[in-house]
Every structure is written in structure tokens, then in C-alpha cells.
Amino acid sequence: MQFEAAVEAGKIIFAEKPVAVDAPGYRRVLAANEKAKAKKLAVAVGHHLRHEVKHREVIQRIHDGAIGDVKFQRAYFNSGGVWTRPRKEGMTEMEFQVNNWYYFNWLSGDHIAEQHVHDLDVMNWIAQGHPVEANGMGGRQVRISPNHGEIFDHHAVEFTYADGSKGFSFCRHIKNCWNSFSEHAHGTKGSASIQGHGKAELFIDGQDAQVWDRGPDGHQVEHDNLFAAIDAGTEHNEMGYSADSTMTAILGRMATYSGKQITWDQAIASEVDLSPPGYSFDDKPQPEPGPDGIYPCAIPGVTKVL
Q: The domain containing residue 55 runs over which residues?
């Protein structure tokens, strides 16, 4: 709704990721972006890794064939998790969920969409397109309390791209475990390893490794590039690939929540709408806590996502 309103108002837009939390939202964003392009509006999206120097250097070389044909990729966003904001006395259910937004799908899309989408965007960038199919598994193992809403605390997804290459995606929010924020590509002539906020390495068979330091923070560079495009009056619209990366995360969530193999075409046609009935603090969003205050989560093999 916010993107649609900004487009209708003819505004320059910076949108954070994810840009949707369900397939109906993805379709709305794409439709609004067609209007944005017709109006020649500048649209930036917070995929800062697209603007990191070491990502751009390595991925350009991958596209130029440095590591041969990419056969599979690995992507990780494993961490100890984020904040919680306990319920305060007198809060309505809507107030609590908005304040604790990370843990509700209609607000964040689960951490596979809210956070791991960065890595999925890099996988799509390397593959030069979105996946055509996904299957996976996940669950809620340790993050179970009235303050943790309905989302999973781990996901593992196998994505298949149109050329047959695979993308293996792992994200986890569990303390005292191995952590990584990184993307890796493996080809017929070598491999590449890129740390989200660290160095990047390119390994070409028979050659010494090439290494890039991080360089300027992409969170700043993405704005520098937006401002430069505005000043120059040049086209700048990042919503197309960003929407596809968000939908990739939603596809992954559909696979882990359902336990089913889901195709891209099935996913984008889904009519499952996570929107609440209204947007006042007295409206009641869809997820409701059980008698013990715990919100039920998806059950693979039972939960329907299409």
C-alpha cells in the first residue's frame, strides 16, 4: 500500500526489503512498479549488497565466465536472532504485533524474507534470474514464547533455477551455533566466496586466489547511487529484481511451511493473503495466541500455502 501511494503521488522512492510478504503483495508491487516506470520515477530498494564493491567485482567476473558454468550456490544468514519486545499492559493485539513486528508473517514475512532475502537476492543476481522451483524444511525449535510470534527459527531450502543449477539456502536464528552471513558460487572452473560484510575471494582453478576487501559500506553507496541518478536525471529502478528476490524468499517459506515442492508459477499465483482485516489498532490481525499465549506456527505436511 505504501509503495502504491508513493507511486500515485509521483514521489522518489526508497523501499526497504522485503517489498511484500505474500504473493498478492508481490503482484501488487509489480503492478505499481509499471506505473512508476511509466512516470519515470526513481525507485531504490534496500538491497545494499548490490552496491558493495566486492560483490560487484566478483559477480561481474562470474558472469564473464571466470569460474565456468555455475552448478550450484550456497547462501547463509545464520545468527543468534534479534530483539523481542514483550507485551505491555493495555496493549491491543494489533499494537503488540506491530510493536513486535519481526515475529509475524503479515509484517515481516518470517526471517527468511526479512533478513535472508539479502543472500537470496545475491543468488538470483549470480543466476541472472529467479528460481523455478523449491523444496525445503524448517521449524521452530527454540524460539517458542508469547513474545516470539509465529515464525520459524530455521529454514533450509533447495532452489532450482531454469538452467538446472541449484541454490542451497540456510538461515537460522538460534544462539550458540555457527553463524555466517555469506554467499558462495561453485562452477566448472572454480568458485567464489563472498562475506556479506567482509572480504570476497575468487578461486579460479590453477591460479592464485583473488581477494577484495569490503570497500565502502553498501548501505551508504546505495543512497549515493540513487542521489547521483536523481541529479543526472537518469533511469534508476531497482524494484523489478527486488520484487523477484522477495518472492524467492516467499517461495522458500512456502516450501518450508508446507513441506511440499512448490514451483515459481504456483507460488506467484497463490491467493493466500496475510493482510489483516483493517489497519487500526483495534483491528485484529490473523494470527491469534493460544490459551497459553503461544502463537501456533506452520506444520509441514498440514499447512496449506497455495
A: 2-268
